[in-house]
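Re: export button greyed out
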Amino acid sequence: MGKKHIFDDPRNVKRLLKIFFSFVIILLILDVLYIFLSKAHVIHRHINYKWEEFFGFYAFFGFVACVILVLVSKYILRPLVKRREDYYDN
Amino acid sequence: MTTNILPAFIFMIGSLLIPFFRGRAKSIYMMAIPVAGFLNLLYLPTGDHYLVNFAGLELVLLHVDRLNLLFGYIYHIISLITVIYILNFKNNVEYVAGFMYAGAALGVVFAGDFFSFFVFWEMLTIGSVMLIWARKTKSAQAAGYRYLLVHVFGGLVLFSGIVLHFNQTGSLELVKISLSGISSYLIFLGIGINCAWPILHPWLTDAYPESTIGGTVFLSAFTTKTAVYALARFFPGTEILIWIGVGMAAFPIFYAVIENDLRRVLAYSLINQVGFMVVGIGIGTQLSINGACAHAFNDVLFKGLLFMSMGAVMYRTGKIKATDLGGLYKSMPWTTLFCCVGAASISAFPLFSGFVSKSMVMAAAAKGSYLPGQASYVIVWLILLFASAGVFHHAGIKIPFFAFFGHDAGHRVKEAPKNMLIAMGIAAFLCIFIGVYPKPLYSILPFPVDYHPYTISHVLSQTELLFFSALAFTLLLLAGIYPSEIRALNLDADWIYRKLGKQIYRTLDKGLNPLNSFCESIVRGVTTGLALFFRDAAAKLSLFVAVNFWLLAGYRDKRLEIKKNRLYNDISQGTLSIGIAAAVAVSFILLVLIIIYFKEA
Amino acid sequence: MESKEYKKELMELKHDAVPGYKPVFLVLFTLGFSYMAYILSQPCF
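Workaround output, generated via the alternate export path:
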């Protein structure tokens, strides 16, 4: 194969994961900061619903929504609809 | 300076001349068509043009206003991009069909009356089915045929609706229609089939992934978006559209997670994105309709870009299933980059185009829920938020990850051809440009825009949503829970006509055919029985009479058998001696005379 | 186009678990799910 590519090295994959996980944590910290600043009326916070005032509403919603999406697809939808590739052919 | 050439005609007549050009001139000519069309569009004055009286119908071939100009602009842009993309295919069928199809879409969008609207609507079907058949595989032929049947049916529904509408109102004017009466429902449903509403949708996920590499890019741009335009023109603020749209946004993402064919994943996410637009039209406020139109504009670009990147992968590797792909970032770095831009745009990352349009619909839904009696819009908002997270999950992560990263399938191919890279580059540039600087897009929306996407709360909340969706993907994958990619077929609503229809046919076949053959056997049995009986009836009758005489006369055993055989043969073969025959005849006549005599007496 | 040793098409592409992540995921999901359930049970207006 010759050339080594960036993600052939498992250390690079680990590095990427580390960067990603730290980003996620930074976002949560920013969220806390944002709540404080808007409570102190330093910056205006535009919200549609009271739900959004909770810490990390969007973060947890995104996480839980995607997990539910995948679990439902895998354990409910797939067993119901999966057929062999030539299902319609005969 | 003003012009008033029909935008559709530039494309349609232009397309007919394509086969006459060769080599470089052909490429230049094809790129010149959308450019010329775009220039024409810039100088089109708003209002009605080409008022034609045709068979007593008042036709308006060209109606120009802000709503259809928006669609006109994006159709020209995507036509140019797609044409650049398919320059290396050298397939006249694809070129001509592509331009015919795009021209038909322009015709629908700029039609000023129901009649011409319908005529172009039908042309849309013809152009698109040619693009599917141009793939020339068996499955593409079959899928194209199913596609054609569905759209011909949809066209008929629309047509009957228009005829009834004309019958009631006496006018072909394109007006807002309220859902009441059968004509409005027929028009609504006819448009809905092209819009891929749930249960009516499988033509899309069935046929788009079967089309040619360039054909799919064309297809992704026009049919559904034209239907969105039609809904925005006739049915803005129709409440049921909100719930239809919510269904469209929600259900395809589940299918997209387990689908193996990456172009089919994109087809499902296409329905999901159109769902957002349909919700926007259903809400019917200025903000929501602006959002729907802006999102249609952006979707044409980023969905086209995603289909183009998958097409490039397919062009180089010959594979499109997630099970056969992976690790392509090593050999196709530019395609990878462009695909990621498309993925970021469809997921509505800040600074990418989806961010500035999708949120308008969400904001409109949230605003709507504060109106008295509209608290159920909260559910709409929640489901749309769920769909936003979900779309990132499958279109934003799954597509790039399984094609370009993930498990290395070992393809060592060349980067996509230059023209494909240029086409993808233009689309990617526009996605980022609109995302960073949405003002030009906002200025061409149907209504004045008072919306600011780049507030701190919006940027932070959207980034949180997306990063934690990505976190869910990462953890599910690393924990080994993420569903494996399997070569399989996933049943969808097309099962109704692909399997159930067949099953019904087979049951009827199995139930009715035996009945048929049973009846036949009875009729046959009776007639053959009768025929057999009458064949030697005379001989048997005479034997019956004669044997009694012979027995009286004392014939027994062998001699009786011989006499019986001789008489049977003589009668059945007609070799009875003439004397006996005459005697029988005479005695018969005598018998008749005697009977007549006694009757008279 | 394609290198020789990869002619065979996979029927299934499994994603193997990296040890140690499953408990992390389960804890996070349980927490996240109960937290979301709590938030959404609150009034929104």
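The CA atoms of residues 16 and 84 of chain A lie 37 Å apart. The button fix ships in the next patch.
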